[in-house]
Amino acid sequence: MKLKINGVEHELDIDMRTSLLDACRDHLGLTGSKKGCDHGQCGACTMLVNGRRINSCLTLAVMHEGDEITTIEGIGEPGNLHPMQEAFLHHDGFQCGYCTPGQIVSAVGMLGEVADGWPSHASADVKAGAALSGDEIRERMSGNLCRCSAYPNIVDAIETASAKMKENA
């Protein structure tokens, strides 16, 4: 099978039952996405598939042939960090760091959802789209857990990155 990950096409000969997370970690050496719970409950394995957030531990790699897959390794690079990565550093949006890759990928995907006008359960007016309030961020990021409880710093980082990304747009 062929998977396009972070803009690079990879040819893999793996068991059809291999999850996307395991294909990336065990067969391609892309270990940034973490295996936290392996049940889709913690968000440590979050990747973007065609711009949408998914829990990569819950999907088979074979289901994503032809898709554009982005892992944390595809978001920014040393010396040229993504605004979300910079904001996480600036606001200390991590402690142990285990959840950080999933948090950052999820936050980037979430900002795409907001830009596309997708409401959440916290959106005050679903017809008008989402305003990026603290409540809105917390609701949209609720699928990503942090054992260290760095949540206030994560929300601050997302607010900062969102403002910077709007300036650069």
Automatic annotation (TrEMBL):
Asked whether the keyword Nucleotide-binding is assigned, the reply is: no
All copies of domain 2Fe-2S ferredoxin-type, residue ranges? 1-75
Keywords attached to this Swiss-Prot or TrEMBL record, sorted alphabetically, are: 2Fe-2S, Iron, Iron-sulfur, Metal-binding, Oxidoreductase
Gene3D superfamilies per UniProt: 3.10.20.30, [2Fe-2S]-binding domain
Q: Which residues form a coiled coil?
A: none
A GO molecular-function term, please?
2 iron, 2 sulfur cluster binding
A Pfam entry, by short name? Fer2
Report the InterPro entries cross-referenced here: 2Fe-2S-bd, 2Fe-2S-bd_dom_sf, 2Fe-2S_ferredoxin-like_sf, 2Fe-2S_ferredoxin-type, 2Fe2S_fd_BS, Aldehyde_Oxdr_Iron-Sulfur, Beta-grasp_dom_sf
**Protein name according to UniProt:** 2Fe-2S iron-sulfur cluster binding domain-containing protein
In its UniProt entry, the species of origin is given as Jiella endophytica
The organism's lineage is: Bacteria, Pseudomonadati, Pseudomonadota, Alphaproteobacteria, Hyphomicrobiales
